[in-house]
Write a structure and sequence with these properties.
The complex is a heterodimer of chains A (116) and B (112).
Chain A (H helix, E strand, L loop, with lengths): L4 E3 L2 E4 L5 E6 L6 E7 L6 E7 L2 E4 L8 E4 L6 E5 L8 E8 L10 E2 L3 E5 L1
Parallel strand pairs in A: 2-11
Antiparallel strand pairs in A: 1-3, 3-8, 4-5, 4-9, 5-6, 7-8, 9-10, 9-11
Chain B lengths: L3 E4 L2 E5 L4 E7 L4 E9 L6 E7 L4 E4 L2 E6 L4 E6 L8 E9 L4 E4 L3 E6 L1
Classes of the chains: A mainly beta (116), B mainly beta (112).
Chain lengths: 116, 112
């Protein structure tokens, strides 16, 4: 069966450019998470969706970051006016139930963003 | 502050040897602790999960331990293989809401 997929896998952007990163979760998964992983670091939480509702966006670093999941399946993370410090791998994960301590999150391969 | 610290930062071992990776955490309230394996260019994959009452969990050649009193965990890899080369990330779930707190990972390289 298909796992979590993300596109593009690599993105090079000029500083100031807007980018959109796509996540296709496992079919039927209720919960969807976005993480940012800097080079040599563990992932850090950005935002969480339960179906189409964005229940937690406390990890978004600035108002340049915006995420949506309008139909409760595919999600898009948009970064406006990209800065060099936005360079990182952006990971998407999904889980089958509402977010809970014992739910396993399944991760996609990530989108590696490089801002020049 | 809720933190997860791992050591060593990187490790090189010869194929067939054993190794142990360490994790210390200060996350509260604690729900569970997972070890993830992240291959280069891939997303993390869960290896083990342990709750407060469990002190050891095995998955093939991987054995994780948890000491909830000292807030320490270890991941032991037996008879390492070249395919074990990856980053191993210790992850603590905070509270019942499922928020994951990640360590920075240990980069393991297994050489022939």
């Amino acid at each position: 069966g298909a796992g979590v997929s993300q596109s593009p896998r690599y993105k090079v952007a000029k500083r100031g450019q807007d980018v959109a990163l796509r996540c296709d979760p496992i079919s039927g998964h209720v919960s969807l998470f976005w993480y940012q992983q800097a080079l040599g670091q563990g992932p850090e939480f950005l935002t969480y969706f339960q179906n189409e509702a964005q229940l937690d966006k406390s990890g978004l670093p600035s108002d340049r970051f915006f995420a949506e999941r309008p139909e409760g399946s595919v999600s898009t993370l948009k970064i406006q006016r990209t800065q060099q410090e936005d360079s990182a791998v952006y990971l998407c994960a999904s889980s089958s139930q509402t977010s809970g301590a014992h739910e396993t999150q399944y991760f996609g391969p990530g989108t590696r963003l490089l801002v020049l | 502050k809720n933190q997860v610290e791992q050591s060593p930062q990187s490790l090189i071992i010869l194929e067939g040897k054993n190794c142990t990776l360490q994790c210390n955490y200060t996350v509260s309230p604690f729900s569970n602790l997972r070890w993830y394996k992240q291959d280069t260019g891939r997303g993390p994959v869960s290896l083990t999960i342990m709750t407060f009452s469990e002190n050891t969990k095995s998955n093939g050649r991987y054995t994780a331990t948890l000491d909830a009193d000292t807030k320490q965990s270890s991941l032991h890899i037996t008879a390492s293989q070249l395919s074990d080369s990856a980053s191993y990330i210790c992850v603590v779930t905070r509270g019942q809401g499922g928020k994951l707190i990640f360590g920075q990972g240990t980069e393991l390289s297994v050489k022939p």
